[in-house]
Every structure is written in C-alpha cells, then in structure tokens.
Amino acid sequence: MVNSNKSNHTKTKPFTKTQPNRNKGGGRGTGGGAPYKKPAHGKAAFVKSKEAQRHERAKKFQERQALRAQKQKELEEERAKAKKEKEEKIKQYKKKRLEKTKAISKRTQRGQPLMKDRMQLLLKQIQEMKKNG
C-alpha cells in the first residue's frame, strides 16, 4: 500500500506566493513596521538594563511631578494676588461711596442741602477726570 496522504498533499497548500505578505512593508497605513535589520558591522545595539530603564522612568516621573507642583503653586499665588487686589478695589470703592453719600446727605438745621460740600465733591470729580483723562 502506498501512503495516500503524502502523494495528495500537493493539492492544497497553506500558503501560496500569490497571496500578499501582510507582515512586511513600512508604508503609511499598512499597519506593519519595517522588517528587523541587524546593526551595522561593529555597531552593536545599545540595550539598557531593566533596572536602568525603571530608574530612568521613575526619575522622569518625579521631574514631571515637581514641575506640576511648581505650576500649581504659581497658579495659587496668582489667584491669591488677584483676589487680594479685587478686595482692595472693593474696599476703596465702598470708602469713596460712603464719602459721597455723607457729603450729599448733609443738611442745614432747616433741612436745606449744604451746597458747600456738594461743590467740593464736584470739584474733586473734575480733578480726577483731568488726572485720568
């Protein structure tokens, strides 16, 4: 008896040369990388040990954390400064407003408004306009 499996094996091949090789190539969109190349003669590839890589990654992580903390601190300082300036402006505005209302609300014994204080207030406003404008 002749072994029929070996003689009929040529009918179906698992891989033929007409099928494209999808693992090769390095063009855009192909999904495959360039095939492995051996380094040139006399130039061995530099491979770091796992401990060195781990140490380097930890160092980079610490640097990023320090930079992030520094940025956060600067941002907080900037916000605190802006808040303080805003509060100071509000304080000055309230003080100015209080002066104005006091000057306008002053009256004589008979209930007439005091023109002297009103004129002083107007003069102050005109001087500020000249100074700012």
From TrEMBL:
Residues 48-90 have a biased composition (Basic and acidic residues). It comes from the Eukaryota. Residues 1-90, 98-117 are annotated as: Disordered. Residues 98-109 have a biased composition (Basic residues). Residues 24-34 have a biased composition (Gly residues). This is Thyroid transcription factor 1-associated protein 26. It comes from Lucilia cuprina.
